[in-house]
Amino acid sequence: MKKQNVANSDYLTTLVALKERITQAQYKSYSAVNSEMILAYLDIGKIISQKTKSGWGTSVIKQLSGDLQAEFKGVKGFSERNLRRMRYIYEEMQEHSIWPQAVAKLHWGHTSLIFNKIKDKAQREFYLKKAKEEAWSRSILEEK
Q1: What is the pLDDT of residues 46-76, one digit of tens each?
Q2: CB 126 within 8 Å of CB 80
Q3: How many domains, the chain?
Q4: Rounded distance between C-alpha atoms, residue 17 and residue 12, angstroms
């Protein structure tokens, strides 16, 4: 009977360790995907910024939005509003070389909230850093 309890205890310890490892891998995978998508959003913002500065009208953004949503059905993030936000955030970040690294570590919703609500660049930098360091949820960020 003791042998079964030891085996059962060893099994439960192993199970807990495996679950923790899987959870850690899932979090790291999600974080890597999130960072890559944010970098893609910044690249999209850059391209839209360059095209509108070289003569494209801003109405093209609406067409881009429709075409991207049609191509990537079920993928969120390509609304006209969000494409404009990508361009805006890209343009705002040009003066601050550390912001892209900070932005890539946050959820896009956090980044959008910070850039839409805070116009002062020093305050933006503060909230970009704090949101990551403190792992603030979006609702906590809104409160701060």
Answers
A1: 999 999 999 998 889 999 999 999 999 988 8
A2: no
A3: 1
A4: 9
